[in-house]
Specification:
The complex is a heterodimer of chains A (280) and B (309). Chain A has 280 residues and is an alpha/beta fold. Chain A has nine helices and twelve strands. In chain A, helix 3 runs parallel beside helix 5 and helix 5 packs parallel to helix 6. In chain B, helix 4 packs across helix 9, helix 6 crosses helix 9 and helix 11 packs antiparallel against helix 13. Chain B is mostly helical and 309 residues long. Classes of the chains: A alpha/beta (280), B mainly alpha (309).
């Protein structure tokens, strides 16, 4: 592999009205690297990966996947936006796992996984189904192939969503808080699947509130606040010895309210309704 | 302890430890008995009226029920309703998309169209279209203000058939646009995100992911809409189109058997609507697959053994 990063984000900005959701973000992700992004709600973590996957447009800066500019092309000496079909083709080279799973409700589990390989990547249905069944085996849901998503638990749906994302054979996988919508006891089964992917050498960018997980699987950890990257480094040095006061205060708030459980819904880490029962 | 007297002391006879609601008696509901008696009396009166009133002339009804002219009128009514619904659904879908356009003039045009064709009574519109030749004596295809490629005499083009199809379709499209728009708005944004994230083109996203989910919401009011168009076709009898109502009118204008002939028409309208309602239920079930958490829908090969944990 070359020394060029798989994914290169340079100086991107994104405004929602007057609010700067991303205020100049640079990020390189090397081939096979696992990058976790942490930070408070509204810091721009999700917006960043949604911009990378072109679910949102960016106002300035540039994103390259393997040196190919995303969303624009050079035309008569300037850049112009790509048409919808070309953008769709670029999106097909990455995958995204959503907080709310977003499986297609009227497709069976198997069809959810084979749909993109067949319709977008032009593979035969037989090949796609064989691969889908193998993936379901890997995520421990081989017997659920003919179920509909609503018949599965949240954790099972998210594992199907990960299988769907892997089936596209993506260059980079993006995870948008994949465990935040899950009941505490279902978090671990999803993290287990992600751990396995990371060990297999998948290039991953993971937005997460699971600090322990961020530390365990990441080659590099990034802390964002107010639309900027405040600190980044190896998870050990960064999470043990935060250099900035902001990361230090984020980490302490996180740990205080979560009782070091690692499994509490982190969206509520500011609330004072502390859990009645200890979670282990 | 102080406080309210325990129930056991009031109902001293029973031992609370042996209570079992399965042994309770049924509650008497007197108003149900009253409603049942009233309904029974009304039903008897109705049957008596239908069987004994000689002016209903059931023999005439039976004689004309399968009359070729009546069946041909029925056929006209059904194809007119189907044509208006199909054209209305397609145009309505375009209008729904136009109403959600990012380009304001397109939205305004769609809103104006819907406002006009929903706001004018269908009967007035039908007569208006039938008389289009007065407004546009010639209809031509060509470059605006430029050369013409083909042209026709409006009096020949606007027959009762074309006026009926155009009129009913325009009204129908305005209603269908609102129904379809409501269905599309009901599909959560996350589904569009997921489809786009999978690399689907806008067309694939719409037809494979969004529309099938919107159909669930569109079909019940869309079905009511088809029923009202089917009944609305009776209006075309005023422009002398040979629909079901017109075909029975032709008969009773000759024989003066007005009531039995109207009963013939009523029976056919009810039969078609009933048949259609059955089809609609089937469509609703088809598009609701995957939207119930119960047993394995339409795939009963395996049991969902504790699937919904």
């Amino acid at each position: 592999m070359t020394t060029e990063p798989a994914l290169r984000v340079r100086g991107i900005r994104k405004n929602f009205g007057d609010h700067a959701a991303l205020d100049g973000v640079d990020l390189d992700v090397a081939d096979g690297e696992v990058v976790t992004i942490i930070g408070p709600s509204g810091s721009g973590k999700s917006t960043l990966i949604r911009c990378v996957h072109q679910l949102e447009t960016i106002d300035s800066g540039a994103i390259h996947l393997d040196d190919e500019l995303l969303g624009h092309e050079r035309h008569r000496g300037t850049l112009r936006p790509l048409g919808a079909r070309r953008v769709a083709a670029q999106r097909g080279r990455m995958s995204m796992v959503f907080q709310q799973f977003h499986l297609i409700p009227h497709f069976t589990v198997l069809r959810n996984i084979t749909e993109a390989p067949v319709r977008v990547h032009g593979r035969s249905r037989e090949e796609a189904e064989t691969e889908a069944r193998a993936l379901l085996e890997r995520v421990g849901l081989a017997d659920r192939a003919d179920h509909y998503p609503r018949q599965l638990s949240g954790g099972q749906q998210q594992r199907v969503a990960i299988a769907r994302a892997v089936a596209a054979r993506p260059r980079v996988m993006l995870f948008d808080e994949p465990t935040s919508a899950l009941d505490p006891e279902l978090v671990e089964e999803v993290l287990g699947v992600m751990r396995q992917l990371a060990a297999d050498g998948m290039t991953m960018v993971v937005v997460t509130h699971e600090i322990a997980f961020a530390r365990e699987v990441a080659d590099r950890c990034v802390f964002m606040e107010a639309g900027r990257i405040v600190e980044s480094g190896t998870p050990d040095e960064m999470l043990t010895n935060p250099r900035t006061a902001r990361l230090r205060s984020f980490l302490s708030r996180h740990h205080d309210s979560r009782h070091d459980s690692g499994h509490r819904d982190p969206r509520h880490h500011d609330s004072h309704t502390t859990p009645q029962e200890p979670v282990t | 302890m102080a406080g309210p007297i325990p129930l056991t002391e009031i109902q001293s006879s029973a031992d609370p430890r042996t209570d079992d609601v399965a042994l309770s008696r049924r509650r008497v509901r007197p108003w149900r008995v009253v409603a049942g008696v009233v309904l029974a009396v009304v039903a008897v009166l109705l049957v008596h009226f239908l069987l004994t009133n000689p002016r209903l002339e059931w023999d005439v009804v039976a004689e004309y029920l399968l009359e070729p002219s009546v069946l041909s009128g029925l056929g006209t009514t059904v194809w007119l309703a189907v044509a208006a619904t199909v054209v209305g659904a397609v145009v309505g879908a375009v209008l729904a998309a136009a109403q959600m356009s990012a380009f304001p003039p397109v939205r305004w045009a769609a809103t104006l169209y819907i406002g006009v064709f929903r706001g004018i009574p269908p009967l007035v519109q039908l007569i208006f279209w039938f008389n289009l030749a007065y407004l546009l004596p010639r209809i031509s295809i060509g470059i605006p203000f430029g050369p013409e490629f083909a042209s026709w005499d409006a009096n020949e083009v606007i027959t009762p058939v074309t006026a009926a199809v155009i009129g009913l379709s325009l009204v129908e499209s305005a209603y269908m646009a609102e129904i379809i728009r409501g269905g599309l708005l009901g599909v959560e944004q996350g589904q569009r995100d997921a489809a786009r994230a999978m690399g689907f083109t806008p067309g694939q996203t719409f037809f494979r992911v969004v529309l099938p989910q919107a159909m669930r919401v569109i079909i019940p009011p869309g079905g009511s809409q088809f029923i009202s168009v089917l009944k609305g076709t009776a209006l075309v009898s005023v422009i002398a189109m040979a629909d079901l109502l017109h075909s029975v009118q032709v008969v009773y204008n000759r024989t003066y058997e007005i009531v039995p002939m109207l009963i013939v028409a009523c029976l056919w309208y009810l039969a078609v609507v009933t048949l259609f309602t059955v089809g609609q239920r089937w469509l609703e079930r088809h598009f609701s697959r995957g939207h119930t958490t119960g047993g394995a829908v339409r795939r009963p090969k395996k049991t969902p053994d504790g699937a919904s944990a």
